[in-house]
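Example 327, ligand iron/sulfur cluster.
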Amino acid sequence: MKTRVATLAREKGTPISRSASRKSPAHERAHLEIGAPNSNSLLRQWNGPLTADLTLHPGDFGLGKVPARLRPDATTRLICGYCSTGCSLDIHLQSGVAVNLTPTADYPVNLGMACPKGWEALTPLAAPDRATTPLLRNPKTGKLEPTDWDEAMQVFTLKFKALMDQHGPESVAFLSTGQICTEEMAFAGALWKFGMGALHGDSNTRQCMATSHVAYKQSFGFDAPPYTYADFEESDALVFIGSNLCIAHPILWQRVLRNKKSPEIIVIDPRKTETAMNATQHLAITPKSDITLLYGVANLLIQKGWINREFIERSTTGFVEFAEFVR
Ligand code: SF4
């Protein structure tokens, strides 16, 4: 009713009277409650079950803001182990326990980014079936039983030492995995070779990369790809052979997306992968015909004279034989 009076008064150009403009006690109370930042009202809840989680505090260590319960007292750095891209992650620690992570902002590989796999790097730490205790088989029952690390190490080293004493240091070997972190791998290698005097150790990373490493060595003289991640951002043309970069190494695909030159993206793959779907050209060759295609391309380049003869003479050997081979 009072609101109506005020409206009528304004419509007629009449100054609003003091009594007409005064708000009801309830209205004033609601107004006060809305304005007070720490108390809840029917209209707005300032505090609730998620308040503590959503309120951010400075995280220190250059981390920006983090929820109070995840505020770290230290950080450490690790390389994500899910794929071979090598993204760096800053791990947030509370009393030595990893509680959160952020991708390292100034690391040249991932430039502050991580893919969903990297963001989940700490999840295995909370897995209920994670192996955290050494197990030793009880000779009487034949069952595995928990033991402490000192005893586990004694049994492990002495039993292998006995084998080596009997059959020589080359008689035993360990096979590790690229899925353990660098520090663990370094420890396993040092223990095995320098601590126990064994000779042979390898990992599945060499198993799966052996053929490409040999090819790199034969082609370029060293066992690594001859390009850098920065090339993804600067090349005019990118050729992916059998690589589903979008899914397998998402951070490298992000680097491709940062390329401002609208590059030609050619995917050679029998499968219509996500990367193929995002390519400018998809060459869906039949399986196992990639080497035939590459020889054919080499032959075409030589026949058309689209090669740098000066470079070939200066930097390669066996070119005449190669040209004959692919003809
Ligand atoms: S691309 Fe993803 S899985 Fe691979 S290293 Fe980076 S964050 Fe880890």
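Summary: The chain has four domains: 2-35, 55-122, 147-226, 228-326.
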